[in-house]
Here is the input.
Amino acid sequence: MDFYGWRPYVSVAERRRKAAKAMAKLKKKGHPVSPVVVEGRTIVKTFWGKAWCENLEQYSDFANRLPRGRTYVRNGSVIDLQIAPGEIKALVSGSEIYEVAVKVAPVAKARWQSICKDCAGAIDSLIELLQGRFSKGVMERVCRQKSGLFPSPHEIQLSCSCPDWAGMCKHVAAVLYGIGARLDHQPELLFRLHNVDEKELIAGAGKALPQAKRAPAAGKVLGGEDLAALFGLEMAQGTGADAAKPKRAKARVGKKVPAVRVGRARSALRAVGASAGNSRIDNRDGHDTR
Here is the structure.
């Protein structure tokens, strides 16, 4: 430590060596180490990661401090990041291994219910939600400052074990960007952080759909003949022995009478013949032989 109380500069290579050594010790103790890995220069790439970082950068309280952490998170200095309800704990490799804690105030119940109500019916599925594939209106509602899902400066408490007196040192800034990078791959952690259920955002998706009050018209219901013609199948009209009987190709004589009406036709014709006395009915096939 120099005259002004600052620790000597430590190169990136040395920080990485210390980080690897610290992670090895943690793993040996059974701690589930979860480092933040950023590929390339772009820290965040998806909707949720970008939304988290953009929200932080829009507040003047953070704007002049956050850039110091970009280099740290890019070079792998955030060696462990754990997100739990209301709190993020992290280890950052600097001159030493520093402990960082970020506490986030829970979303008020009324605020969460308002978000769910405004988004009801506009998010079709959980996959669509987590991938950030929804309408611009929903995006603006979720990201709205002070009343959306992302915390404002007064809802965040920051602490670091480093000697920097600033409320947001470069180690804390690196962790905040690291949260955005983590949300790129695990957006559901944002809801865990606020201790809310993301499924509630899509619970009202079907409420806006009209309910069917009447049965469909008879002309829109497919009967057996329609299904047979649609699928090219011969559908049996009965069961057991009746279903196994082959159909006659054609009637023996005269005009063909539908099988379902033969019995009724015979009875009617007998009645007519009995009353008139001048007609004769062939009981075998139902035809007038007068």
In short: The longest helix spans residues 12-28. Confidence is low (pLDDT under 50) at residues 205-215, 276-290. Residues 269 and 275 are 10 Å apart (CA to CA).
